[in-house]
Design goal:
With about 240 residues, the chain is mainly beta. About 10% of the residues lie in helices and about 65% in strands.
């Protein structure tokens, strides 16, 4: 009996030490953290850019002979059209989703058309260069930008009157206005592509003839207006 009691006392005394030597129980499992998607960065339209553009123009011209005796009063509006290609430079500043900018471009053109008056006389209006300087206001949907644009335009208006292999020509640089709009999309962080429409009115050029050539001084107003549909690629430098 004494041995049983003694063994019980020894076992009871050793229990705390044995418990201390046992490994600690593992912590209770935790619920996995909720997945939080990372938002894609919003494209920044601010910065300077250079680019190229090309497209096609179509419009009309009108010669007014009302000051010349013996000619019809006007040719009426006749079609002019042709291709254009050139370069672009500009800058944008973005605040929120609104984008404000200024853009200038210069294009080589081959826009022309002709009408016949008082046969065998033919009137031809042509344009060989065209430039614009415009403000732009747009609204950005991340990488897509919809914009309106307006400003000044300049170009040459060449008027040529010909008959029987003989021609009389006057080439004037004229100034007018332009307005339109377009959509631009950022293909990469630096490369954007656009499609735009512009209406250009260069006012009146003229066909002039001196007293020495025609016997009397003659000035015939020649109008020029055209719609441009262009596509372009721009390379944008870092934002600011």
């Amino acid at each position: 009996m004494k041995r049983i009691v003694l063994a019980a006392v020894v076992a009871f005394s050793a229990a705390p030490a044995l418990a201390a030597d046992l490994p600690a129980p593992p912590p209770p499992p935790q619920a996995p953290a909720a997945y939080v998607p990372v938002a894609a960065p919003v494209y920044n339209w601010s910065g300077f850019y250079v680019g190229i553009n090309g497209g096609y123009a179509f419009g009309d011209s009108n010669w007014d002979f009302s000051s010349v005796v013996g000619f019809p009063l006007t040719t009426g509006n006749f079609d002019i059209n042709g291709p254009l290609v050139g370069g672009t430079v500009g800058a944008n500043f973005q605040t929120g989703q609104f984008v404000f900018g200024v853009e200038a471009d210069g294009d080589w053109t081959d826009i022309k058309g002709s009408a016949s008056v008082c046969s065998p006389f033919t009137c031809q209006t042509s344009n060989e260069w065209l430039a614009t300087v415009r403000g732009r206001v747009g609204y950005a949907f991340d990488r897509a930008l919809i914009y309106a644009t307006a400003g000044g335009a300049a170009g040459d208006v060449k008027a040529t009157l010909s008959a029987g292999g003989v021609s009389l020509s006057t080439d004037n640089d004229e100034f007018g206005w332009t307005a339109g709009g377009g959509i631009e999309y950022a293909l990469t962080n630096n490369l954007t592509a656009k499609v735009e429409y512009l209406f250009v009115d260069l006012g009146n050029g003229s066909l002039s003839c001196s007293v020495a050539t025609c016997g009397v001084p003659i000035t015939v107003p020649v109008s020029f207006d055209a719609s441009l549909i262009r596509a372009g690629l721009n390379f944008k430098f870092g934002g600011f």
